[in-house]
Amino acid sequence: MKEILAKYIPERALELAFDLIQKCNVHLKIVNERVTRHGDYRKMPDGSHQITVNASLNKYRFLITLIHEIAHLVAFEKYGRYIKPHGIEWKKTFQQLMLPFINPEVFPSKVLPVVANHFKNPRASSDTDEKLSIALKQFDPANDKNYIFELPLGSVFRLYNGKIFKKGSKRVKRYECVELNTGKIYLFNPNAEVELLN
User: Fold this and answer.
1) Burial 124-133 (b: 16+ CB within 10 A, else e)
2) FRET partner for 42 with CA separation of 20 to 30 A, picked from 23, 58, 83, 144?
3) What is the pTM of this model?
4) Each residue of 127-144: pLDDT tens digit?
């Protein structure tokens, strides 16, 4: 297991992450990409703990996702099953578990301040933190996708599910975009990745 994990996370995070997986008795499954989530945690009917993480994530996003899911397990065990999945108990647990990894031996110096800032108040998804998402994207393999905020007003773009939209103006934080087939308006985070059509 350790040799497999070594392919997916930063080298200097390996021992600590592996110890955490063993201590929490986690069955880790590395799975093909799911567009809607990076990972998830489940308590299995036999009482064991299963965590899945997408194989397609870069090593820094993989590490953050792994610790995010372990934080669910630890928070549920410590505070009970009825806490909010991303409530205060989970946030505190996530911060505590992540703290030993937030150092220059694990994260590159250009990303470290963004990671540290994110963990002052971690969100339900690292993707909703625009600065963190963009900072981590530089370690992804190159692709033909664009961020919504990069597209000119009125651009037409396609989502992963094939739906086609036209970019509108920015509200407070998100962009109003019209789905061309239905005329419905949807709000998009600035760091949503899309395929520019024209």
Assistant:
1) eebbebeebb
2) 58
3) 0.83
4) 778 889 889 988 988 778
